[in-house]
Structure formats: structure tokens, C-alpha cells
Write a structure and sequence with these properties.
Helix content: 25-40%
Shape: globular
Low-confidence stretches: none
Mean pLDDT: 90
Strand content: 5-15%
Structural class: alpha+beta
Order of helices and strands: EHEHEEHHHH
Length: about 200
Amino acid sequence: MVEGQWIANWNESNSSGKFERMPTTFRDRVTADGSSGFKAEAGRYHLYVSLGCPWAHRTLITRELKGLNEVISVSIADAVLGDKGWRFSIPPEAPDSSATCVLYLPEVYLKADPKCTGRVTVPVLWDEQTQTIVNNESREIMRMLDVEFAELATQNVDLYPYDLQQIVDETIDKIYLPINAGVYRAGFATSQAAYEEAV
């Protein structure tokens, strides 16, 4: 999306054909005490995901492991990414609202920022109260679900133990390029050399 205009087939490959993932644009945080302006509360947040996107899929797994299904509602996109972006033909797990009742994901981004420029992708953590996107970075959403929503979780699972946080962060950093981004680097390469380097 550029200045609020949807661009079909957004190309994230550089001149040598390598896939270069653009950074996410919404990086606010939900906090348990609300000091960020976004307080962890049941029924306030909505998660947009696609089961075919590993980035979004891992936020859905975190939601399930923590037992936050009744706390954070979800909309699951259709399996195929179309020319108009992710499509939501299945009704959301939330009451009808201006945000959850959308057909295409770009509508959510435009509600948050009518002049939005950047990737329109899942996952998206939406705040019903302020009618905006809180965050669209999967690693940060996972961390919020685990840490900031802990008091609202029905499962006593700690996915980010304090004494292991440094090791967890280092491991995630190490596997990011070859594994997490690897499938995209291979799948979206536009030159043979870029593909071979990715695999």
C-alpha cells in the first residue's frame, strides 16, 4: 500500500532478485498495566491471521497455548492471497464492529491510517477501543500474548521464562534468516542466483 492506495502484487525483491522483507509499520505495545496506552483487557483486541502464513500462524499457536481464546477474538483469512490482499469470507469470532466486519485486510490498515504506506500483511493485533492497529510484528505480538496477557490466560504456560529470556532472544535471532525468512527468500526470489542462495 502506498499513501493509502492498494498496490496488487507488491514486490519485495531487490534488483538482484533477492526477497527483502519490508519492516512492519505498527509497533505499539499492549501492557498489563496500560502504561503504553493499550491495556491488556478481555474482549478489547482482535487478531487477524492466515493459517498459511507462518508469521501469523505462530501468534495463533501462542493464543491457544496461553488459553486466550475467550480474551482475544480472531479472524482467519481465506487460504489464497488474492489481488486485493487477504480476504475474510468466514465471519469473525467477535461481535460485529467497524473493524472486524471487513472483507479484505487492506480495509483494516486504512481504518488505522488512511495514508498508510507499507506491507499489508498478517498477523495484525487490532484494538477495538481506539479503532487502530496496535502491532503487526508477529514476534512482538507473541511476546505480548505471553507476558502482558498472562493474568487473563487460562493456561499456566510461560513461553518466555525470565531466566531464559536472553537465550530465547538469541535463538530467535539466529533462526530468523535461514528458517523463518528462508521460505520467503526461496519462494519469492525472482532470479535463479537469489533462489540458490536462499536454499
